Amino acid sequence: MKDQAWTRFIIVAVICSLVGSVIGIQMIRIQNIPAAAEILAQSENYRGFIETIYPERGSIYDAKGNLFAGNEAVFEVGLDLASVYQPETIAAVASSVLGLNYTEVLTSAQKTPGNGNPYYIVLDGFATKEEIAELEKINQEYEDRKVGRNETKPSLKGLIWTAQNKRSYPEGDLGSNIIGFYSFLDKTEGKGYFGVEEAYNDLLAGTPKQIFKNYDPVEIPSTEIVPPGASLILTVDRDIQAMTEGVLSEAIDWSGAEAGTILVYDPEDGSVLAMATTPRLDPNEYWKYGEIFPNPTPYNRAISKSYEPGSVFKVVTMAAALDAGAVTPETVFHDTGSIMVGGTTITNWNYGAWGDQDMTGCMQHSLNVCLSWIATQLGADQFYTYLKNFGLDRNTGIDLGGEVHFPIKVPGDNQWYEVDLATNSFGQGISLTPIQMVMAIGAIANEGKMMAPHVVKSMIIDGRQYEVNPVVVGTPIKAETATTLTSMLVTSLEEESSVALVEGYTIAGKTGTAEIPTEFGYTSSVTNTSFVGWGPAEDPKFLVYVWLEKPTISIWGSEVAAPVFSDIVKNLVVLMDIPPDNIRLRADNIMRGE
Amino acid sequence: MKTNFLHAYKQAPWRTQLQWIGIFLLILVSIAAIAGVYLSVSERAATTGRQIQNMEQEITLLEIEINDLSSQLASIMSIKNMQARLEELDMLRLDPLQAIYLEIPGYVPKEAAVLLAPPARSESQERPVLLPEFTASLWDWLTSKLSQPQISNEVQP
After folding, report:
1. Which residues contact A492 (CB under 8 A, 6 or more apart)?
2. Helices A434-445 and A479-495: crossing angle, nearest 10°?
3. Does the structure show a pLDDT above 50 at B156?
4. Does the beta-carbon distance from A172 to B80 stay under 8 Å?
5. Residues B117 and A463: beta-carbon distance below 8 Å
6. Distance of alpha carbon A123 from alpha carbon A112, whole angstroms
7. Distance of CA A80 to CAs A109, A120, A122, A132, A160, Å?
């Protein structure tokens, strides 16, 4: 009896062991067959999903911390097809609240997820807060609704909305030529175009991160922080920018100019305080770009359009000649009204002969003949070497997208002729952008030190503010030359009683009237009028460059651009808290204890 | 004789059964207790995980809202809106030439440096947000203490 029980026990144990072993072997086998790897890979899909997190795009502030570009909340409204319960209700609500097409929404909502159909369909990528509030209200109302036994409760189940950032520009078109725009309608491939948005696109955008999001809450890893893109604080002052744009608009209306550019620059450190150009685009509606900027209109004339600047360029020629010792302020030139250079006769703007003129007189009366003579005294090699030292043969490197430069012709080039030395000396036959002119002339206002023009003052990266240090690009002229030329330009403005003058402030400056090259030669009836000036002359805090294209009220820079400069400076000294010279000098003396 | 001796010391069958049942129950209770603790910890981990997820979502929403409010504020304070409000209040723009500069001896205007975030090289950057005492485990503390060089407390004359 006992043996029988023992035998049975052994048999059962053996069977159980065999079954167990077979199950074990089968488990090991299944885990190692080729399909196992595939099944394992498939199972990963049920563990979680990989989400790409795009960091919030960095903000852009003006020099005083006013927001130029930030982010506002919008909502993406979509359909989670697996959860859709009443397609008709969703279509009706979406069409009434979001203004979507009823049939299209219904067709989408009736789709069965999988088998080629998506699981999620975006209905509206940019729903407003008000629209979402309305949706929430309707949803709540449906949930609270009491219905009879045979009635069906309406439901928006499957209609979901998610808050997202959208680029916004609270100041509209103010400073838009500097800011550029971000193509926010493209949520995955959006990028910055023009201006700061383009130049600093990578920094502003930050680094997108791919994160594995586990469905199992136990396996949620530590919080993944995706830092936002860098924020930028500009050198541009919103108030000065607004004032400059206002004066430019008035000037264009008043003068009948086709377009205009005004640059306000700090020659001491190369900061751009304002940069106003026309036309301007509201970056909140960047899709109007093609309409506002028909080809080949540049987005920012100050950096993207070169022109023959005319007599404002005489400042550079005179600086080179004084620095090289080719002339001194006291050098007298006898103006006969014409000069022959390279077989071509050069005349003055009024075809007149001005007799004996010192160098200040040459600048004051803007004598082409005198400046041509100065260039010949300097010699072509030295003249063009100075132009290169002033950075006029290359981009300034300003931190804005879209800068261009037009190559200058130099001796040895096929297109260079001897007469070019003369015409270049008074700003014809040489094409430059306003920012190139500003950087070069900034050196004269800054004791010979040429600063790199820039618009970004500091950056906020990972919660820390980093200052951008000003960069000295070169020293094209000596400090004494710069001081001498500034004094000469102060005198020349005062002696001609220029309309550019501002009461109480010493200003150095020069007008410019340039003929425009066409395929039929130069036109005298249509001109580019310019003015460059800086002040206070002893300790310049600003340099203003004005360029009005093809004004109809007058062809002369002294009549069109000079008063615009004056208007700018009158406002600028108030906005920058620059007291009149007498008060400033008295205060300086008190500070020095004199 | 040998058989009798064994019989004399052998446990009663019911006692052996009770012992086996006791051992079995002990193992069962232990497994149940471990499973209970495991379930409890898992439940808490899962709940915390969900809370983390919800809080992450809340942080994202709050960040979006902060950005939105900043943009709204900037829009309200924009040059165009401010000018419109000034016009509504019948305020006139002063001619800049009418500005009068008052001399205040000894007054030095403040440098208007805009600081929207802590500077890059500040003391607070070096200091961790939480002291190690709050984050270090016992093991961390022990290894850090052991790795520290021994410093003699003796005072040199």
Report:
1. A360, A361, A363, A364, A510
2. 100
3. no
4. yes
5. yes
6. 16
7. 9, 5, 9, 17, 7
Closest A-chain CA to B118? A464
Encoding tokens for residue B48?
């915390």
| Complex ipTM tops 0.90 | no
| B100 in any annotated domain | no
Our CA-based measurement puts residue B83 at a distance from the nearest CA of chain A, in whole angstroms, of: 11
State how far Cα A226 lies from the chain centre: 25
B112 touching chain A per CB within 8 A: yes
Instruction: Name the E strands within A55-176.
Output: 60-61, 67-80, 120-127, 159-168
Residue B39 lies in a domain: yes
Q: Quick one: pLDDT at residue A197?
A: 97
Q: How many CB pairs under 8 A join A and B?
A: 118
Is residue A419 within 8 Å of A344, Cβ to Cβ?
A: yes
pLDDT at A371: 97
Please provide residue A269's backbone torsions phi and psi, each rounded to the nearest 5 degrees.
-130, 5
Whether residue A445 contacts residue A482, with contact meaning beta carbons closer than 8 Å, is answered with yes
Q: Look up residue A341 and give its DSSP letter.
A: E
**Could you tell me whether strands A521-535 and A542-549 are parallel, antiparallel, or unpaired per DSSP bridges?**
antiparallel
DSSP A284-321: GGGGGHHHHS-TT--S-HHHH--B--GGGGHHHHHHHH
Q: Which residues of chain A fall short of a pLDDT of 70? A: 1-2, 220-224, 591, 593-594
User: Does B79 fall in a domain?
Assistant: yes
Q: Which residues of B touch A467 (CB under 8 A)?
A: 119-120
Query: What distance in Å separates residue B115's CA from the closest CA in chain A?
Result: 7
Q: Do B125 and A464 touch (CB under 8 A)?
A: yes
Q: Give CA separation, B50 vs A49, A158, A242, A359, in Å.
A: 16, 22, 50, 81
- Does the CB of B135 have a partner CB in chain A at under 8 Å? no
Dist CA A375 CA A377 (whole Å)? 5
Does the residue B120 lie in any domain?
no
pTM: 0.85
Residues B28 and A168: their CA atoms lie apart, in Å, by: 65
pLDDT of res. A177: 96
Per DSSP, the three-state class of A549 is strand
| Other beta carbons within 10 Å of A565 | 29
Total domain count, chain B: 1
| Residue type, position A101, single letter | N
B53, with CB counted inside 10 A (0-12, 13-18, 19+), is middle
Q: What is the pLDDT of residue A568?
A: 97
Task: Identify which of B42, B73, B114 has the shortest CB distance to residue A218.
Answer: B42
DSSP letter at A154 equals -
Residue with tokens 């219904």: A106
Burial profile A403-436: b = 16 or more Cβ within 10 angstroms, e = fewer: bebbebbbeeeeebbebbbbbbbbbbbbbbbbbb
Spatial CA neighbour of A178 closest among A72, A52, A262, A285: A262
* CB of A294 closer than 8 Å to CB of A449: no
Which residue of A lies nearest to B49 if distances are taken between CA atoms?
Answer: A217
Question: In sequence order, what are the residues at sequence separation of 6 or more whose Cβ sits closer than 8 angstroms to the Cβ of residue A501?
Answer: A493, A494, A507, A566
Contact A91, A105 (CB under 8 A): yes
- Start-to-end CA distance of chain B, whole Å, equals 88
Closest CA in chain A for residue B70:
A70
- The alpha-helical segments, DSSP class H, found in A355-476 are 359-364, 368-378, 380-389, 418-425, 434-445
Beta bridge partner(s), residue B59: none
Query: Which token pair is A510?
Result: 């020069």
Q: DSSP assignment, residue A156?
A: -
Kindly list the structural domains of chain A, giving each domain's residue range(s) and its CATH number in brackets, ordered by start: 73-147+156-167 (3.30.70.2110), 259-592 (3.40.710.10)
The parent domain of residue B82 ranges over 14-92
The pLDDT value given to residue A496:
84
